[in-house]
Amino acid sequence: MKRVKVLIGNYGSGKSELALNFAMQAAARGDRTELIDLDMVNTYFRLTERGKMVEQKEIRLVSPNFACSGIETLSLPAEVASAFVMDWDTVIFDVGGDDVGSTALGRYHTDFMELEEGALEVLNVVNIRRPLSSTVEKIQRLQEGMQAHSRLKITGMINNSNLATMTGPDDLWDGYEVLKEVSKITGIPVAYTTGKQEFLDAFMARNPDMEYVGTLVPIDMYMHRDWDSYIAHGLNTVDPRKEIY
Question: What is the pLDDT of residue 4?
Answer without folding.
Answer: 98
